Amino acid sequence: MVQWWRSAGSHLRTVAVSRWSSSGFRCSHYHTIQAIPRECSGSRVATRDRRQGRIPAVVFFQNLLEKNPDARLASKKHLITVEKKQIKAILNSVEAPFFCSTRFPLQIRAGSGSSHLLESGTVLPIKIHRDEESGQILNLVFVWAEDGKELKVDVPIVFKGEDASPGLQKGGILNKVRTSLKYLCPSEHIPTKILVDVSNLDIEDRISMRDVEVHPSLKLLSKNENMPICKIVPTSSGNKESVCE
Questions:
Q1: 28 near 91, Cβ under 8 Å?
Q2: End-to-end CA distance of the chain
Q3: Going by C-beta distance under 8 Å and a sequence separation of 6 or more, which residues neighbour residue 115?
Q4: 71 in Cβ contact with 144 (< 8 Å)
Q5: Which residues in 39-83 belong to E strands, given as ranges?
């Protein structure tokens, strides 16, 4: 367990940040995403696909997002469509906040219902584009996430222990400064979420990025590890503090 931070009385207090668990690194084999190729892109084609109950998507190597990508990686970039019903079912079972930190097997078949497999592998969703008014999923972005591949991932933070926090029981407010942390992760060690235990926090106590214990292979991508994730602030303190990297 990670220790420390100061309390309102300026003495040290122990705070608990839950340890990483290997269960958070599993690929979700229960859902194998089924996809078919799409030969071209464009708003008209995308609209047609959505009318047919499919969502336009793309899968590629994350390295292609870099300034000087390796051209050889482009060979595994695929324009695809996936079934809207299946994606909605996955979002309901995995829970939307953790969709983009969960790996899934992907199978690209020659056509809808076809047994001919064109490409397969493990992928990580990195973006869900939705219509601002309706919330409808417009398209999805996946990256290849085979074991051993290092990826940059925003991992959601889940706070627990609020019902036991001394500071909250005294009427303090939990200021959740960060909702996620970005790591460079080997694909097989991507945590679905990070649990942060605030049950020991008193007024003015905080938990910083460096206090979070994760798998040793994960590298925190932050300029300042001392940045707070959360802090218990007194009700009378007015506006909550905001922190920018």
A1: no
A2: 26
A3: 109
A4: no
A5: 54-60, 78-83
**Token pair recorded at residue 44:** 């008209």
Instruction: Report the alpha-carbon angle 91-92-96, nearest 5.
Output: 45
User: Are the C-beta atoms of residues 18 and 195 closer than 8 Å to each other?
Assistant: yes
Rounded to whole angstroms, what are the CA distances from 34 to 50, 107, 121, 125?
16, 5, 11, 14
Distances in whole angstroms, Cα of residue 115 to Cα of each of 5, 109, 110: 57, 7, 8
Per-residue pLDDT reduced to its tens digit, 76-98: 899 999 999 999 999 999 888 89
pTM, rounded to two decimals: 0.82
Structure tokens at 167: 């500071």
Which of 153, 195, 229 has its CA nearest to residue 21? 195
Q: 137-144 and 173-176 as β-strands: parallel, antiparallel, unpaired?
A: unpaired
